[in-house]
Amino acid sequence: MKALVKEKAEPGLWLVDVPEPEIGPGDVLIKVLRTGICGTDLHIRSWDGWARQTIRTPLVAGHEFVGEVVETGRAVTDIQAGDLVSGEGHLVCGKCRNCLAGRRHLCRATVGLGVGRDGAFAEYVALPATNVWVHRVPVDLDVAAIFDPFGNAVHTALSFPLVGEDVLITGAGPIGLMAAAVARHAGARHVVITDVSADRLELARKIGVSLALDVRESTVADGQRTLGLREGFDIGLEMSGSPVAMRDMIANMTHGGRIAMLGLPAEEFAVDWSRIVTSMITIKGVYGREMFETWYAMTVLLEGGLDLAPVITGRHGYRDHEAAFADAVSGTGGKVILDWTA
């Protein structure tokens, strides 16, 4: 089969022939239809410091996908050939304290699809049945392909109650944009998003945010004044990993404000801990999705009319992967999809 492989310890991904994956008794073999390109895939392709420390070559990359089940192991009873599925990309041990307590998203032995084992940038991918999400209701294939990052957005956005709250989102990348859509859909009063990309801020306006701020030209405090907020933001969703963005968020939260932080900083940085303490601000780190509570929430949100179409801005056949990655790395658009049937 064809697959995008990190063959060598150097920049690049290579489209090559590899053997089809084999499945065990509890596994599912899936024919991949669409995949999404993630920031993690960009790190692997560029072979940056994180990738050099994390990835063992050769490796089939990719973890955001939708596909059709073609074969199931003999122990699999609730998934059938022909089912349309996406996959939870965090494979857990099932034996640690958190796994046994039903908190699988906190497993210390998590292995990432397309990071610690061969992934979904291929014509076929194998997964344990326990990591397979069957789409029981109709869903657009492009949207189904990005359930993984959509789950990050939902997990972050729904970390705290949103109804009637004023929400600040720092970072209008694809996950930040999806979080903005979720916050609006979930009943937030105002949703403000910040970035330095005019194109991404325009996407945010299409999603329906209250205010899209280019922080090169306006401050978060300016945004507060524009909306008539007297005491600051109730909820913060930090999606950028930027030290400046995090400090601005803390400075503009109301007393008792709550921050969910998904953006991963490249290095340690200082924040105003006195402000955090005296304003009694809660900061919660978020990683991945709650398995599978977040997946249920994603499906219900889409059934309820949440529209993610504006977030998907690039579509390419898998043989045109170089153009697709160039599109994704530009930092000006939303999600980029690879079609494995083209």
Automatic annotation (TrEMBL):
This is L-threonine 3-dehydrogenase. Residues 174-301 form the Alcohol dehydrogenase-like C-terminal domain. It comes from the Bacteria. Zn(2+) 1 binds at C38, H63, E64. Residues 24-133 form the Alcohol dehydrogenase-like N-terminal domain. It holds the Pfam family ADH_zinc_N. GO terms for molecular function: L-threonine 3-dehydrogenase activity; zinc ion binding. One of its GO terms (biological process) is L-threonine catabolic process to glycine. Keywords: Cytoplasm, Metal-binding, NAD, Oxidoreductase, Zinc. The active site is at T40, H43. It catalyses: 2-deoxy-scyllo-inosamine + NADP(+) = 3-amino-2,3-dideoxy-scyllo-inosose + NADPH + H(+); 2-deoxy-scyllo-inosamine + NAD(+) = 3-amino-2,3-dideoxy-scyllo-inosose + NADH + H(+); L-threonine + NAD(+) = (2S)-2-amino-3-oxobutanoate + NADH + H(+). Belongs to the zinc-containing alcohol dehydrogenase family. DOIA dehydrogenase subfamily. Zn(2+) 2 binds at C93, C96, C99, C107. NAD(+) binds at I175, D195, R200, L262, G263, L264, V286, Y287. The keyword NAD applies. Its cofactor is Zn(2+). It comes from Streptomyces phaeolivaceus. Pathway: Metabolic intermediate biosynthesis; 2-deoxystreptamine biosynthesis; 2-deoxystreptamine from D-glucose 6-phosphate: step 3/4; Amino-acid degradation; L-threonine degradation via oxydo-reductase pathway; glycine from L-threonine: step 1/2. NCBIfam families: PRK05396.1. It is an enzyme of class 1 (oxidoreductase). One of its GO terms (cellular component) is cytoplasm. Its EC number is 1.1.1.103.
